[in-house]
Amino acid sequence: xxxxxxxxxxxxxxxxxxxxxxxxxxxxxxxxxxxxxxxxxxxxxxxxxxxxxxxxxxxxxxxxxxxxxxxxxxxxxxxxxxxxxxxxxxxxxxxxxxxxxxxxxxxxxxxxxxxxxxxxxxxxxxxxxxxxxxxxxxxxxxxxxxxxxxxxxxxxxxxxxxxxxxxxxxxxxxxxxxxxxxxxxxxxxxxxxxxxxxxxxxxxxxxxxxxxxxxxxxxxxxxxxxxxxxxxxxxxxxxxxxxxxxxxxxxxxxxxxxxxxxxxxxxxxxxxxxxxxxxxxxxxxxxxxxxxxxxxxxxxxxxxxxxxxxxxxxxxxxxxxxxxxxxxxxxxxxxxxxxxxxxxxxxxxxxxxxxxxxxxxxxxxxxxxxxxxxxxxxxxxxxxxxxxxxxxxxxxxxxxx
Length: 401
Known about the structure:
Blueprint: E1 6-8, H1 11-18, E2 23-25, E3 41-45, E4 51-57, E5 63-69, H2 77-94, E6 102-107, E7 116-121, E8 124-129, H3 138-148, E9 153-158, H4 163-168, E10 176-181, E11 188-192, E12 195-199, H5 214-221, E13 228-232, H6 238-245, E14 250-255, H7 258-270, E15 279-282, H8 285-295, E16 299-304, E17 309-312, E18 315-318, H9 319-331, E19 334-344, H10 351-364, E20 369-375, E21 394-400
Parallel strand pairs: 1-3, 8-9, 13-14, 13-16, 14-15, 16-19
Antiparallel strand pairs: 2-5, 3-4, 4-5, 6-7, 7-8, 9-10, 11-12, 17-18, 19-21, 20-21
Helix pairs in contact: 2-3, 5-6, 8-9, 9-10
């Protein structure tokens, strides 16, 4: 058996690891490591060569190593199965999945398997790799999934860092692999909080439902009765569905993709909602807001939930800088006393910086926003206090003057 490498790290990285952070970022110390292969299991050592941790090596990434366990631990399917079991116990004890058959079962760093997630969609599983270093261990992942979870079949999805470029080139479908068991139907239906949504496990980077917003959708439903609701960047309409079911007078869903709006209409129909009672607008959201203001349209509730970065024929959007412009435009069609709900999953934007974007947008609109509540992702997306990057979702409810 090949001897496990001992890779020395610098004092600053050692301090972060002792504080419980699972990442080793490339620096002058890691550049002195001997040649390592992608996915190699190695031992991390202190500057004075004391063993610190067992880690998964990703030599070509900014995050060159991810801590898996204490030193000397054997990493195999039994080890991974134990991690999966711990994750299941946490969810059984602390996650409310009543009338819900879709959730995140394993949350990467949040469940001490960094770079690897597992989600349930009805009778099917989707494992996702956020680092190439898991690729040599796919058989181990499949074995642990079989042993740990009851399912009809499982899929594997690669999540490379350059996802935007890949999607633009139409190659996202190449990232999905059927691991074992049955193949999921093309129109798979799942339940969340008693409502139904169409899911496609074999369609690019996204399945059609962002599971980290489950609790926020449940809350949103309680705030819209009798109100006119505008859902910007509506995607497949999950928030629009809960608004309609929650008694909204009318829901207007806007997205640049007609494909996603067609799926939104299908989600309405699946839940017994009359599509004709609501509006679906295929348009760039900022342009749509400008046209609505020109027409004098007004809404009681507006949801702004853009991707962290997107590109259309009209231009580009990014959370940094773009959020303020969107807020200003949204406030132009929000009634006084109306509710503005904004959300961002951009991991590198802190809550404080995000709130500054909202402030900039409100000042430009010459009005004020009162923050009622700040929420995050659901408890199945929990993260250790030692890993602040895991608290990435910012969901802010604010009332305008």
